[in-house]
Amino acid sequence: MIFQQVIALFFAMFILAIVPGPAVFAMVSRSLLNGFSHGAAITFGVLLGDFLYILLALFGLSTIANAISPAFELIKYASALYLCWLGFNMLRATAKGAKLTTALRVSQFKNILTGSFIALSNPKALIFYVSFFPAFVPMNHVSFTDVILILTIATCAFGSVNLAYAYLASGAKRLFISPNFTTIMNRIAGSIMLLSGILVAITI
After folding, report:
1. Nearest CA among 8, 100, 90, 83 for reference residue 46
2. 87 vs 204, residue with greater confidence
3. Which pLDDT band, with edges at 50, 70 and 90, does 149 fall under?
4. Residue 41, Cα to own-chain centre: how many angstroms?
5. Which is deepest, 8, 55, 72, 186, by most CB within 10 Å?
6. What is the dihedral angle through the alpha carbons of 48, 14, 41, 114, rounded to the nearest 10 degrees?
7. What is the DSSP string of 64-79?
8. What pLDDT shows up at residue 176?
C-alpha cells in the first residue's frame, strides 16, 4: 500500500466510525453507567470482531462465511437478546438509586465479550469489507505488512472514535453524583442498551 492509500483508507474508516450504530450505543451506555474503562473494554471487543472480518475479507474467505450464515443469524439474535437483557436490568434497578452503579458493575471480560458479540452479529460487515477494500488495497497481492497496516488503521480509526464517545459519556457520568441523577443515568443507559439490542435484531 502506498501512502495515499493509507491516508484514504484511514479517513474512510474514520468517517464510517463517526456514524453511531449498535456498538456505539452499547459502549456509550456502559461508559455512562460504569465509566470509561468499561466502554474501552467494549471497544476492544468490537475491534476483535472487526479484525476477524477484515482478515476474512483480505484472504478471500467470504464464500466460507456465507456457507455458515445460519450460525451468524444465531449470533445476531443471541447478541440482541443479551443487550436487551442488560438494558432491562438497568431499567429495573433504577429504584435502588445511588447504589446502582456498584450493583450493576460487570467484569471487563464480559464487556469485551459483549463488544465481540455485537461485531460478530453483523455478517454484512464482511460483505462491506470485501467490496470496500478493493478501492484502497491491492487485493491481488496483499502482503503481511499490508495486513498489519490495515489492522493498525482500523484500530486507530474505529478505536479513536469509539474511545472518544466513551470518554464523553463517562465525563457526563462524573457531572452528576446525586441519587436522582444516578437514577436518571441508569434509565438513559438502560434505554440505550435496549435500543442497541433492537437495532442489532432488526437492522443488521
Report:
1. 83
2. 87
3. very high
4. 10
5. 186
6. -60
7. HHHHTHHHHHHHHHHH
8. 53
